[in-house]
Design brief:
This protein has 464 residues and is an alpha/beta fold. The protein contains 13 helices and 27 strands. Strands 1, 2, 3, 4, 5, 6, 7 and 10 form an 8-stranded mixed sheet that branches. Helix 5 (133-144) links the parallel strand 5 and strand 6. The radius of gyration is 23 Å and the shape is elongated.
Length: 464
């Protein structure tokens, strides 16, 4: 297939500007006629959505804790193989370059992933309020891990050309690394933030004018030719990209709209590879996914649209009837909240949800859970057998108030760092829901188990 160029965009810390720089690079190289394949390190759902819209190709998550090295390389190669051969791969990092699961090791970090992929790193430095001290900062990053290929520096949020003139010479003299450009703050392309991070791609107007502005930002501020010269070379070997079965074993309805949009592309492909046909529907629009053999409701922002979701009475009636008939239903985080009895928003207003699970969730003004999770199944269920271990993560601003814990938990959850464990995973007949976002590739049996449950429902008494 030939060779493809690739880079990793990392930051000195969270909110250094990795996403803005990555998107500007994607827009600029795409405007030049290059096909760009994007990736995101870590469990984030929001950045890949923006990547996909700006690059025009589906972005994929890479994660050094949830997935093995080989599984990550498979996902990387799958991105290169899907949708036609790209010219350039851009991997956006997570948090700071060396930040990961542990303060003692590189597990889950951008640095670990860059070494696994064999790609050079461009370090984004938030330069606001800095001068010569930026050189000391970059020198520390360069010397911290000599095995890492740190190729160049990109300055972000500079005050103007004079500021860049103060920053570039000491950085290059002290580190030997080239400063390949700088971006000034541009509020017209800055992504708005809220309690779970950036606003989603579904809510951001990435029209032609916005994409052109992003591309100009990079063309005017960065030496794109130098970036390409410093990029790594990837051998684009064929990868086993999961494909949908020509004769599906079951049809699974996947909730997808502005309220439910947090899905790993790998999860959807794993279901297809296990024999599922996926059909998408919008709970916000009250769409009823008739003819399905199971449902998958991912996370998102149901709390921001709780009133509208509560008003879809016909859908809620259908969901309850389908669940009583044994339809397999699996839900995560936002989907789990929607399947509960009520959702109480930040203003204290209660909204009636679908009522498939006996829980009430309440929004908080502070973060209630954040981090990697390892789930051990306590009993056989939709996702596998008792004892199976699955990795994922948790990130939410709501909590359960009625009741606070499941009476018949499906999961025993470990924090990912070891130590604290607790029961989770709510079951009600054929319905399973949890706050934990699971990565299906972390447990080979998961997708097969869920599809098999849906196939059993398809072939059961209802089909006779």
């Amino acid at each position: 297939m030939g060779r493809i160029k690739g880079i990793v965009v990392a930051g000195t810390h969270s909110s250094a500007g990795k996403t803005t720089v990555s998107l500007a690079l994607m827009a600029a190289f795409r405007a030049r006629g290059l096909a760009v394949q994007a990736y995101k390190v870590g469990p984030d759902f929001i950045d890949p959505g923006h990547h996909s819209l700006v690059s025009g190709r589906l972005s994929r998550n890479l994660d050094g804790w949830m997935l093995s090295r080989e599984a990550n390389l498979d996902q990387f190669r799958a991105g290169l193989a899907a949708g036609g051969r790209p010219d350039l791969a851009i991997v956006e990092g997570v948090m700071g370059l060396f930040d990961g699961l542990s303060p003692e090791a590189e597990t889950g970090s951008t640095a670990e992933m860059a070494k696994w992929l064999g790609l050079p790193v461009f370090l984004v430095v938030e330069a606001k309020g800095m001068s010569r001290s930026a050189a000391a900062l970059v020198l520390g990053f360069k010397n911290f891990d000599p095995q890492l290929n740190l190729a160049g520096v990109i300055l972000n949020r500079v005050a103007g050309p004079n500021h860049v003139d103060y920053l570039r010479p000491p950085i290059e003299a002290a580190t030997g690394l080239p400063v390949v450009g700088a971006l000034a703050r541009d509020d017209q392309v800055a992504l708005a933030e809220r309690h779970l991070g950036l606003t989603t791609a579904e809510e951001t107007p990435w029209d032609r004018a916005a994409l052109d502005r992003l591309a100009r930002l990079a063309e005017e501020g960065l030496d794109l030719d130098r970036v390409l010269d410093l990029a790594g070379q990837i051998e684009a070997a064929p990868s086993p990209v999961p494909t949908a079965s020509s004769r599906p074993r079951a049809t699974i309805g996947v909730a997808r709209d502005e309220a439910f949009c947090f899905y790993y592309q790998a999860n959807l492909e794993a279901l297809q590879a296990a024999g599922a046909e996926l059909v998408f529907f919008s709970p916000l629009a009250g769409e009823i996914p008739r003819g399905v053999d199971g449902l998958y409701l991912g996370g998102g922002y149901p709390e921001l649209r709780a009133e509208r979701l509560a008003g879809q009475a016909e859908l809620k009636v259908w969901l309850n009837r389908a669940a009583r008939e044994g339809l397999p239903v699996y839900a995560e985080c936002g989907g789990f909240m929607y399947l509960g009895r009520r959702l109480i928003d930040l203003d204290g207003r209660a909204h009636d949800m679908a009522g498939l699970l006996p829980v009430t969730t309440q929004m908080d003004g502070r973060l209630r859970a954040l981090g990697y999770r390892e789930v051990e199944l306590k009993a056989d269920c939709l996702l596998g057998r008792a004892g199976d271990r699955i990795r994922g993560h948790e990130f939410h601003y709501s909590h359960l108030i009625d009741p606070p814990a499941p009476a018949d938990p499906a999961y025993r959850v470990n924090s990912g760092r070891g130590g604290r464990t607790w029961d989770e995973g709510w079951r009600a007949g054929s319905v399973l829901g949890s706050y934990v976002h699971l990565h299906f590739l972390s447990q080979p049996r998961l997708a097969e188990s869920l599809v098999a449950a849906c196939q059993k429902y398809r072939e059961g008494p209802r089909a006779a």
